[in-house]
Structure formats: C-alpha cells, structure tokens
Amino acid sequence: MSLHVPPPGSPFPGGYPGPPEPERDSAGLGILTALVVALIGGTVYGLVAGEIRYEIGWAAIGVGFLTGYSASKATGGPNPFLTAVAAVFSIGGVYLGELIVAAVINSEELNIPVTELFLSHSELVTETWEQIFKDTWTLLFFALAAVGAVAGARKASAD
Fold first, then answer.
1. Residue 16, beta-bridge partner list
2. What does each C-alpha distance from 109 to 28, 53, 77 come to in angstroms?
3. Handedness of CA 134, 125, 50, 97 (dihedral sign)
4. What is the pLDDT along the chain (159 residues), one digit of tens a residue?
5. CB-CB contact of 123 with 141 (8 Å)
6. pLDDT given for residue 3 in this prediction
7. What pLDDT was estimated at residue 143?
8. Residues 128/42, Cβ–Cβ less than 8 Å
9. Which residues does residue 4 pair with via DSSP β-bridges, in sequence order?
C-alpha cells in the first residue's frame, strides 16, 4: 500500500492510504495459468529430452515449479486447492513430455514427422512410452514434478 501526498490543510499530514489493491483471487485464472504452463513446460521438456534421449530429473522439477509458481502468482496468493491442481497438471505436463520423447524416438526410426506421429499414431507413441518409461524412475519424476509445483506455489506466495 502506498501513501499519497495530502493536499494542503489536510487532516492527514503524513499522507493517507491509497485505494486498496484489487483482489485477484480467481481460481479460474489460476487453473488456466497452471494448465498452459504445464503444457508448455511439458512440451519443452519432451523436445529437449527427446533430442538428447535422456530423462532430466531437474527438468521435471522445473515443470512443476513453474506451474505452481505461475498459478499462485496469477491469483495473487496462496490457495491450497490451486496448489493441488498445479501439482496434478505438472504431473500431466511431465507425462506429455515423455510422450513427446517417445514420438521423437519413433519419428527418427520411422522417418515420420513428430507432429504427425503424435497426433495420428497415438497408440504407437503410447506403446513406446510403456516400453521406455513405465518404471520406478517415471513415478519418481512424476513425484518430483508435484513437489516442484508445491515449492513453486510456496515461493510465489512468499514473494
């Protein structure tokens, strides 16, 4: 809150409080923000991991952190429901990223564009994901994404 300079002769010699800041506690905006950030983060994660053919644990945390942070910032403060939504969306973002990795791998082997493979041959992408990623490490990456979302939401609330 900022203090405004009073006019001469005002009964508030030190200034008076300005108008209150508008509340931004819109769960809808936070959910939309979390969804968009998770989709973008998961896509970037998938493209990078697909090119280097290696899962990146800190990137899964990053997807979660950015999702939680952005959602909390969009609503202007802490919201436990929104933090849980961001955690779920960040897991979905990492899953999307891993599906993109599977599409990139299949694309190179089958000489089919990644987008065509991802959109038209989703069963092949899913089968490849199950062969490559369906293990304990994948569960760990999902958990890291969720923890990152909680940490991001807390960080945004502290700022």
1. 4
2. 41, 13, 47
3. negative
4. 555 565 666 665 555 555 555 555 688 999 999 999 999 999 999 999 888 887 777 899 999 999 999 999 998 878 899 999 999 999 999 999 999 988 998 888 889 898 898 888 888 888 988 888 878 888 899 999 999 999 999 999 887
5. no
6. 57
7. 94
8. no
9. 16
What one-character DSSP code corresponds to residue 11? S
**Dihedral of the alpha carbons of 59, 60, 65, 67, in degrees to the nearest 10:** 110
HSE at residue 45, side-chain half, CA atoms within 13 A, is: 30
Which SS3 state, helix, strand or coil, does residue 20 take? coil
How many whole angstroms from its chain centre is CA 34? 5
Contact (Cβ atoms closer than 8 angstroms) between residue 31 and residue 85: yes
Do 151 and 71 form a contact (C-beta atoms < 8 A)? no
- Single-letter amino acid code for the residue at 106: N
Report residue 132 CA to chain centroid gap. 24
